[in-house]
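Example record

The entry below shows one chain as it appears in the dataset: sequence first, then structure tokens.
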Amino acid sequence: MPIGSQKNKRKKYKPILSGTKEWPVVRLSNNRKRFIDEVVEHTFEKIIEANKSDNDLRDELQTTLHREQLRIRKNPWKVDPADDEPFWKNIKNELVDLVDTAQTQKKEEDLLKIIIRRYAEEIAGNFKKSRYRLAREIIKFGFARLLNATRVKRFGAIFRSQYTLNDKIQIVGKAKQIRKLAKIGTVVMVPTHFSNLDSILIGWVIHVLGLPAFIYGAGLNLFNIKILAYFMDSLGAYKVDRRKKNPIYLQTLKTYSNLALQEGAHSLFFPGGTRSRSGQIESNLKLGLLGTAMEAQRSIFMKHPDRDGKKIFIVPVTLNYNFVLEAPILIKEHLSSTGQEKFYLESDAYSSSYNMIKFMVKFFTKGSDISLSIGKGMDLMGNFVDNKGNSIDKNGRFIDTRDYFTTNGILSADKQRESEYTRRLSEIIVKEFHRINRVFASHLVAFVAFRIWRKRYERLDLYDFLRLHEEDLIIEYDEFVEVFTRVKARVLKLKKKKKLNIAAHMDAPTDDVIKFGINNVGMYHSRRPLLMNRKKQIYTKDLLTLYYYHNRMHGYDLEKHF
């Protein structure tokens, strides 16, 4: 049987809750008005606390107004509310009319609350059980039918059900543990982020594992597409507008996430903040949303002195693809930002809806798999937990997470302390990303080919090297096998030390692994990053994109083997 062609046998998981009425996200939606009121009040308190000096609040309001007017003029979106311009014009008039009287501070605070409420209403999700079920069935039906049509190669097969997403996506790791943790606490899933496909696939995996729907932040720009907005607005997504950088908006967003966690809503954070432009596993995580989880845990402990408050569990997840739709444009964006004048960003055609649909068709017509690896659950301090949620330190001792938030035996807020905890947590998540990452043959062949060529032209800087003509980039098969065998042996040693994981197909004979890897790496791209000709010479049609796939193996110190 060819590598990767076997059917994926998967355990069927029953839902951990008997009905959707018990889902935290449903309770949150049913009490949407009350929850938004709480977000407004808590955000208001935070902003007032941060602007205690004279004129601080006025300055904050004026700065927010200026930035919002600039956004409306320079970067409007279709999804923006129709009254956007009149609203901010009215805020401007109110600020201009303010005079220094005894009532000035009260009027400033009233304006602040109006702005916060507008932001909170915009951010808040609108989960609907009926729409959730409909979207879930559409995904299952549509993907399954497409799989059958493309596997069997006949139009009539589109109405069959032989193949499903189970045959496409391999779920490995701590699936049983995440189910157990979701029953006794609140789970925050933190995945790597490579493709716009990630959210859809993770949402499907959450359903397969029998977990309640998670809430997650989705870019407001995605709501420009009406049909997409319909589903995302109903699937637990809350809106994140990355154009808005003012402190009032950012604090409202953090408060929304914080209070949702305190309400027990399982959440999905992409800790890298956005898709990895370089193709590397994220190493520098954004601390904002992780910080809200830290604050939420401390608040839960303080509200429940009898120790009946739920713990928040962090669960790292890695996604592995043989190809990423956006790879060519992402690597160009990465090189443009790091190389400055040395590398010029060219236009790319992958951003249209047509190309997204074309990608989905090609994605399912190929026999390539996806892997989703679930890491060990941990507490907010980065201590791993057992299946009962007990935190265990590096010496194997049970510890009480509450102790980390105490001063002289009293639970208290300490921003500096919690900031340090959050930084340390991010470092542990990155280590876990690398440990649970599954090496595909496509990752390894891309790494080996790129490093062989890089070694040959080591006197060139990276940007000049990436401009080499493809005629200068040929590897004889015997040389490739020799280097690949050496690097693969190192990968297997790292696996034995539990510093990474590998896909099952990596256990095949070396020639088969190499062939499988070359056939799968970037397999849908019109300009293939790696190919082998009849003379068994290995070459590339797109060195930039090969660099992107090569970067997936960054962080394991394999370069020294060349």
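Notes for this example: The chain is about 50% helix and 10% strand. Residues 129-152 form the longest helix (24 residues).
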